[in-house]
Each structure stands twice: as C-alpha cells, then as structure tokens.
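Predict structure. Chain length: 630.
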Amino acid sequence: MKRYGPWLIAVVCAWAVLVSLRPAKERTFRFSEFGKLPVLLEGRVQPLDSVARNSLLQLRSKQSLALDKGHQLGATEWLLELMAKPENADARKVFRIDHPEVKGLLKLAETEQDFSFNDISRSLDEIEKQAKRVHEIDEKLRSPFEKQVLKLYENALLYKRLKNSLKPETTADFAVELKEFQASIQPGVTAVRSQQAGQQFSQEAFDKILEYLSHYDLMAKVAYPLLIPPQDGAQAPDNWENIGTSLMASVRSEKIHPAVVYYATMASAYRGGNTGDFNDAVTDYHNWLSERLSRAVNKGGREYLFNRFEPFYKATAIYVFAFLFACFSWFNMSDWLRRSGFYLMILAWLVHTTGLIFRMVLEGRPPVTNLYSSAIFIGWGAVILGMVLERLYHDGIGTVVGSSMGFITQIIAHNLALGGDTMIMLRAVLDTNFWLATHVVVVTLGYASTFMAGFLAIVYLVRGFFTTTLNEATSKALSRMVYGIICFAALFSFVGTVLGGIWADQSWGRFWGWDPKENGALIIVIWNALILHARWGGMIRERGLMNLAIFGNIVTSFSWFGVNMLEIGLHSYGFIDSAKTSLLLFDASQLLLIVLGLLPLQYWRSFRKRMASSAPTKLPGSAEPATSAG
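Prediction complete.
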C-alpha cells in the first residue's frame, strides 16, 4: 500500500475524470444536440448550453437545478423548458434571494432561499418600482437591500427575455402558428397597403397580420440570444438576428427563414412530448447549419464539450484532496500520504492545464483576457511553483501551498463567473494578441509568485505559532523558498509592468499615465524590491521576511482586485461590488497573521519546544546545570 497506494489513488481519480467525458445516453429528447446549436450572444458565437449555464449562474449561482428526491435538471433542459413550456418552468425555484428585507418586501417565506417565478410574479410591479428608485441613487451610496432589489429586477428581466426568445410565451403551438402566419402575410400586406391608400380592404386580414406582428415585435425587442444565423453563410456577427426580428423582416420578403421553421418545430414537438419530431428537427437543423456555417457549428460542439467536461470544477475537487493528503502527512509523518497528495496535485494541474488550453482554443486568445481568466491563470502558475518546491524539498509544503492556491483561485473564479459570460474580452485596451500574450501573462505570473511567497509565509507562521512541527530545518527551508520566489516575483512583476508600458504606448500613445492599475503593478514591484533589499541589508531575518511576504498578499490583492473597485481609469473592468467585503476580510486576515508574527518567540509553540529541547540539563546530584561541554 505504501509503495503503490499513491499511484493507485491518482489513477482512480484520473479514471473518474476521463469517465465524465463519455457522451450522455439520451433515450428521449436529445438535449445534448439541442445544447450544441450555435447562437450569437455577447458578441460571440456560443452554444445554447453556454447561454443556459451562464443564465442559471446569474439567477441562482449554480449551473443546474435541484429537483425532488435528489434529481437534477440540466441547464440546457431547463432553458428549453423555459422557452417552450414556460408554465412549467415558472414553477421551478430558480431565483435565489438571501436578503431578509427583500423577502419581506415581496412577502416571501423568510426560511427559504430559492423561489420560483410564480412566487415573485405578483410583486413584479413593486420590484420594478424599487429598481427605478435605486437606479437614481449613486452606486457607491446604495444599501445592501437596494443592491439586492436591483439584482432581483435584472434577474427577472433576464428570465422574461429568455422566455420570449424561442416563441411568444403565450403561444401554445408555434409550428401551427407559423404556418398560419405564413398564410396571412400576403393578404395582410395587401390589406395594410389598401388601408394606407384609402382603398377598401379586408379588416379580418388587416387585424390578423397586426396581431401576429405585435407578438413578434415584442420578441424582437426583448429576446436574449440571437438564434437566427445568416442564410448566405456570412461569418460576421452583425448578420445574426433574433426570431422576432426575422419574422418582422419576413413580412417584406414574404419568406420565413428556414431556421425559424426548425426552431418552431422543436418548440412544438417538445411541448407536445413528441420525441421523434424534436430529434429529427434538431438533426435537420444541424445539417442545414453545417452546410452554411460549419465553423459556428464546430465551435458550438467544442464549447459544449468544454462545458460538460467542467475541467476547472474537477481540478478544484482534486486540489482539495491533494491538500488534505499533504496535511495529514504532517500529523503522522507518513511519506505515502505526502506522495499521494503530490501526485493528486500533478493530476489536478494537468486537468487545470487542459481547461486553460481548451479556453484558449475556443477564444482564439492567450490565457488571460479578463478577471475570471486571470484567477484561473494565477492558480495555474502557483501550482507549478508548488510542484517545483515539493520536488526539491519532499516535505509536503509545496503540495499544501500549491493545492490550496489552486483551490482558492478556482473559488474566486467561480464567483467572478456569476456575472455572466466569462469568454468575453476586457473592456479596455486590447487590439493585439502579441501584447496580450506578453504583458498580461508575465505580470500575472508576477501576481502568482508574490501570492505563492505570501502563502508559504502563512505556512511558516501557522506551523510555528500554533504547532510544534516547525523545526529548524523546516523553518530554514521555508525561508529559502520564500526568498527564492520573491526574487522570481520581482523579476516577473517588473518585466510585466515594463511590457504593459510598451503596450500602452502602442495602444494609447503614452508609456505611463499613473492609471490605478499601473500604480498597483508598480507597487508590487516596489514591495518585492523592498523585501529583497531589507533581506540583503540585514534589516530582517526569517520572521521579518515572512511578515513582509504576508503583507505582499495585501499589496497584490489590491493591485489585482482593489483598483477595479475604484471604478476609475482605463483598467476599471470586471467590477464586482460584492467582492469589496471579501477583499476587506482577506486583508484583515492577513493583518491579523502579521500581528501574530510580530509576537515574541516565547508565544510560538514550535520555538518554545525548540528552546526547551536546547536548554542545558541538570545532572543528578549536581547543583548546577550541565553545559554542553559536560
């Protein structure tokens, strides 16, 4: 067990990851094929599965919907139900509401957190009224209650837009309605033209065409994703339309877009429980698209596979197991537990790397393009450093720090994903892949290594203050690790900042503008240089080095997130108001650790043990303690 156990554990986890890639067996509706269909949203082509997952994340912070008896409703199936059978979807508890005052305003049960559209529909007027009031208040002055009300209003609006994206929500059989609409176009247009010319016209045909157009005009205004691609196979995003806009245009051409017919067939077949017609319509539409927009179809399929694989979620779970194995190895000094944690960290990093490469292929961009991807990349870089340290020192420290940073950055990324699509580009900046691939990647590696040094310092402090496991050899090893990584961090943060200046000169015509993000990057460089000079000048020793490294976590977190929360400057992108509290709590925790690190050594358990073990002993029958010389 001690010899082959670590390998066996890693192989089992790897097998579990690979098994998840098997295609799902669908005996009824082919939801997976429907989820692969490409649409246009947020300026990029993506599958309906991504629309569904990102929408659920915004509504309830999860990518699936819990049902009774432990069952789950997948994101794509939920989206299809919402668009085709909205009366069923309205009873699903998809809205998450935590704030007690918001629940009180809407007269909802205080003990629950998840609510359906039916639960909040009777209060939509009040929600809209409150949202309009909150919009008039400066963002910085809004109370938590007002922010939650505004978020609920935006979620309800998103829900309504999705509901009217495939068909009018009040339409029962869209396929039949479409045929009737097709038949009404020619007489209806004739009646409208006659009425405008002051001639006799058919009132019935006139009223009928206007009734249809009123429904489709609403869809044209509120529909969320653009489902209808260009018929000529043009790749430009501007040529996509939503179904409402396409149907309004069909009045002029007197021809309904084939994609609308396919979608109408899918909606009616799903609503009527007709599995065969639904699957045939999905297949036929897929074939029709493949002949005209093969690139969009292929991208939709690849992104669907990426969504189903969920590499970052799986890497997070494996990082947790790696962390636990490495921590347990410290308690009983078991090498096979340490090796198990190390192998699991390598496996998690491989899954993490696969996800990074997959995203790069899907985006056609370098690994760092926004705050979400920066969190993913920082964790990836930190794990590499952890693996190197573990390979050099074989003491579990590299695994504990690397896996914990991998896990923490994945959690940060998950919370950043709650704002919507994570594959859109940064708001400012970015007109060349070359500078994106150099400046952002290098400076992000500087962030990762500075954090790595800070987390190693936390291990030093926690083990030294709270346990007796920090012996002299371990403390010296940690000191060497932190020093070496700070050297690495200083280099990368400096080079990355200079490359950023060159990029700014190319993009904005100036090398440096004292933008908050630029200042943050410079502060990291200065702080790492300060630590190195203090060490070289003998002003700090082990504990001083560790305390300064921990404060580096505060400096880096401010440069990474804090400057975005200032809401000023060219780099003020990815702002998440809820992160303010988390950032302040993190900074407070680092300050508390520094306070503990400044306490005299007699309060540190490991140093008390070390001093006790090195104190001179008293020989039996002697009045004076024996010296080391005897």
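Summary: The longest strand covers residues 38-41.
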